[in-house]
Design brief:
The complex is a heterodimer of chains A (210) and B (327).
Chain A lengths: L2 H7 L1 H35 L4 H13 L2 H8 L9 H26 L3 H9 L4 H31 L12 H10 L2 H28 L4
Chain B lengths: L20 E3 L4 E6 L2 E4 L2 E4 L10 E2 L20 E11 L5 E11 L3 E5 L6 H8 L7 E6 L2 E2 L5 H6 L1 E5 L10 H5 L1 H5 L4 H14 L4 H4 L9 H13 L5 E5 L7 H18 L2 E6 L2 H7 L2 E6 L2 E6 L1 H6 L3 H19 L1
Parallel strand pairs in B: 8-13, 8-14, 11-12, 12-13
Antiparallel strand pairs in B: 1-2, 2-3, 3-4, 4-5, 6-7, 6-9, 9-10, 14-15
Helix pairs in contact in B: 5-7
Classes of the chains: A mainly alpha (210), B alpha/beta (327).
Chain lengths: 210, 327
Amino acid sequence: MNILQFFWKNQAQIYELTLEHLWLVGISMLLAVSVGVPLGILLTRRPGFRRTILGGATIVQTIPSLALFGFLLPAPWLGERADRLAITALTLYALLPIIQNTYAGIKRVDSGVREAARGMGMTDFELLIQVELPLAFGVILTGVRVATVITVGVATIAAAIGAGGLGEFIFRGLAMVDNRVILAGAIPAALMALLADFFLSRLERRFRYA
Amino acid sequence: MQQRRPEAFILITRADDMGYTHTGNLATIECLRNGIIRCAGVLVIAPWFGEAAQLTCENPDLCFGVHLHMIVVPEPEVVIECRGVSYHLEGGRALLSDLNLQIRRGETLVLLGRSGSGKTTTLKLINKLLEPTEGQVLVEGRATSAWDPIRLRRRIGYVIQEVGLFPHFTVERNVGLVPSLEGWPAERTCARVRELLDLVGLEAERFAGRFPRELSGGQRQRVGVARALAADPPFLLMDEPFGALDPVTRAEIQREFQTLERRLQKTIVFVTHDLREGLMLATRVALMEGGRLVGVYTPEEFRRASDPAVMAYLQAFETAETTRGGE
């Protein structure tokens, strides 16, 4: 039985696990963006927090992913369900590039533009919403893209704690020493990462202002 | 009106007399806009400000037998005032020391000086982008420390050298920004934008929908001026607004701005290091050096000034010009 036939035979399961994977990645990214972007903005307003926040996110990033899943296991509410735990870990992983790019994107806004905006009597909030965020959007999106690609990869490891996703195939394939099973997980995951990368970078290009 | 020969009164007037009417025995003097007076059918341009008032008549033939009358009008009020203002950086370095300066309604005060002389700092103290370390800056009689910065800045148009147009906004949105922040209805903002683009010599149909990157340097600068004027602020702060333009465009825009200046009757504080530009646009020139005010002069006084600092600046500028011309 060649690979294609194998895929065909198991398509229902591939489909199901891909959806599960997508769900893990999607929810994690949603959380990471809704936490990371405000944190990045906070850094531009309160530079004092820079060390703590960026340092914390960097430390998380250096923890090997498998270990991070393990660390969170004893946590009271999180440990109860594998998917909660996986989403938390993935969110933590995705934070750094998002925080960093939000911060850098806003900082990179031309000082003349910022001065003009303030000189025209924009409040800090108006400056942020109407000028800084739109101009930083491309850079923030780059952060989201990088984070998404990382998350798609790391999410395969979530299967190790029973959270499902395409990692199921990979771990099963490794145990069975069957390359076809491994590929049934690896190929859709790789495709997902490539597609996310492709669409997000197309979106990014729209927000480039010279 | 008993006499049959041409008559005119020359009114030496100040900047804030718009609408002033004097009815005398012989004629009605009507001050149309400051300095331009219609009386007995003769238009007389009277200079405002400055002791050396030179009277010129648009049509010398009609000025035959002119009666010279002087009507005393009150000095225009001081609307911006710096009282003993100093500004220090956090490390203690002084960018501005003990500045005392009064700016009157309707005048164009040019802050002239080299880079680092404190011109831009002075400007930023007026719209509260900076706050004085010592002393007070008063705008309309109120210290900037007591002004809400947002309210204050919306009363002050601001044009800077890099223009600071928002690259993600079209020309229309750039110009209409302050009105929309002020909550004007969309149609009113739109009409105002068109009016302003027209005022700065840009066709609304062609330019309203463009983005700043699709404009030339001169066009961008015009949009910058239009944007600053959008909500019709009584004050205008301009920081080397024409500094980044090529000499030809620059001269063109300066000429246009001179016309605009007369038409608008705003109180303008204009920062430049360019002597020629300064003298061309100024009602009064304030020369600054090393964070201090050297003196305030009318353009005529400035040219004639015997003050060593003024002479040094005139000389330095001429030398620089000749060197540049010799290249």
